[in-house]
């Protein structure tokens, strides 16, 4: 009996081994290669979903004018100043993106301005020349963008998170390869935030020759407005959060009907007085900010021309100026007069002298000779205070700027810039000429 059981056990074990061998045959050489290639494809698919890139600028400037804080209040004393040199890293940005699939994606940008963490010691030009600790935003680095996007089709994309507000030419085209000057265009970069980024929700898309964006975002903070920079400081926050008692709307539309030409309109509207940690100082005030802008870009036949016009209005500017002066002691506000209306206009044009040379054109090398003109004034119009008195216009902040130079592109992603500029003031102030050199890159490091 024991022998029979043993024989049956051996037979069953042999049958099981035979069945296992039949169901799991040894892979052939070709099958192994195919399996390896499938694994590689999965890895390549993961890599193709991930993107990393960025942009950065390094600049040297020779300024042929005084940097003394009293150069506007006592201009005659500094007319023959020897000038000064400056080295700078205006912007260094790391861009990250990932495509999750099924229309979901993520984008992020981490920005370092002037080689630091947005905390600086500055000399107050319009006050007493004291050193002042300036905190532009809470935290150690600036998170310029962080959003999650759901794409339904080319014409409809939903974006949630921290995004660039595309008002004006510079905010929509702020990479260093998208403007000729060594620094960003001075007008928009002075009176509105650049790059302007806020947290909210947005829709964007493109259909045929039209592209649009609409956003609902956190409103500006009135106690950060100033004489020199109008509403620019209101986009930042010295706290670990952004006050959002008032929300705002922004929109942009671009048209590409003409070959090589883009025409754009953009706008912003929102109240700002309620977005303060001391809202009682702004009682019964709205501080409505309205901005409208037009811009264009032409790029064809070796010519690039860009231009923009921006106008903004701030309601209750006189009352807000008085309220901000009461906040200066808290270290919250600059405490200066603020214009009720601000204006910025600029135009630049350049010609690629390499464009007729076939060999250089085929290598994607370009050498643009350009000219640029800017006019801007953050105190274009002044409001009145609660007593009906008109606020003083500080004329040193209204300026014209002329610039000429070259942009050399050894390849699409890299540009070397040289520029001579002349900042012109009203006769009672000293003009400010300067020469600047810069090198910059912008692009993606993954394909």
From TrEMBL:
Region (Disordered): 22-43
Presence of the UniProt keyword Signal in the record: yes
Superkingdom, natural source: Bacteria
Signal peptide: 1-22
Composition skew (Basic and acidic residues), residue ranges: 28-43
UniProt keyword list: Signal
The protein's name: Porin
């Amino acid at each position: 009996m024991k022998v029979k059981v043993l024989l049956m056990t051996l037979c069953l074990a042999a049958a099981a081994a035979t069945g296992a061998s039949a169901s799991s045959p040894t892979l052939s050489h070709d099958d192994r290669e195919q399996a390896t290639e499938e694994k590689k494809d999965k890895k390549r698919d993961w890599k193709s979903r991930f993107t990393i890139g960025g942009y950065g600028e390094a600049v040297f400037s020779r300024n042929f004018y005084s940097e003394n804080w009293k150069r506007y209040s006592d201009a005659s004393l500094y007319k023959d100043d020897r000038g000064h040199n400056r080295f700078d890293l205006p912007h260094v940005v790391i861009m990250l993106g990932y495509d999750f699939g099924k229309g979901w994606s993520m984008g992020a940008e981490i920005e370092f301005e002037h080689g630091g963490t947005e905390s600086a010691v500055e000399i107050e030009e319009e006050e007493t020349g004291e050193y002042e600790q300036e905190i532009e935003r809470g935290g150690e680095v600036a998170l310029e963008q962080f959003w999650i996007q759901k794409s339904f089709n080319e014409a409809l994309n939903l974006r949630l998170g921290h995004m660039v507000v595309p008002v004006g030419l510079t905010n929509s085209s702020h990479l260093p390869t998208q403007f000729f000057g060594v620094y960003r265009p001075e007008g928009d970069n002075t009176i509105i935030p650049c790059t302007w980024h806020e947290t909210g929700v947005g829709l964007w898309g493109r259909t045929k020759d039209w592209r649009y964006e609409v956003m609902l975002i956190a409103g500006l903070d009135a106690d950060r407005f100033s004489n020199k920079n109008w509403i620019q400081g209101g986009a930042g926050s010295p706290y670990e959060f952004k006050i959002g008692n008032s929300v705002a709307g922004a929109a942009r539309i671009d048209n590409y009907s003409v070959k090589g030409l883009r025409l754009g309109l953009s706008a912003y509207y929102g109240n700002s007085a309620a977005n303060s940690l001391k809202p009682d100082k702004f009682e019964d005030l709205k501080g409505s900010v309205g901005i409208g802008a037009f811009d264009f870009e032409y790029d064809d036949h070796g010519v690039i021309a860009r231009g923009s016009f921006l106008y903004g209005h701030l309601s209750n500017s006189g009352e807000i100026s008085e309220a901000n002066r009461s906040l200066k002691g808290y270290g919250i506000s600059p405490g200066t007069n603020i214009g009720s209306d601000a204006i910025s206009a600029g135009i630049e044009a350049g010609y690629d002298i390499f464009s007729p040379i076939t060999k250089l054109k085929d290598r994607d090398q370009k050498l643009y000779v350009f000219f640029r003109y800017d006019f801007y004034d953050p105190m274009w119009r002044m409001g009145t205070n609660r007593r009906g008195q008109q606020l003083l216009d500080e004329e040193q902040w209204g300026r014209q700027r002329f610039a000429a130079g070259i942009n050399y592109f050894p390849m699409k992603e890299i540009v070397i810039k040289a520029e001579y500029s002349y900042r012109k003031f009203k006769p009672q102030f000293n003009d400010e000429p300067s020469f600047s050199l810069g090198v910059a890159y912008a692009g993606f490091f993954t394909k």
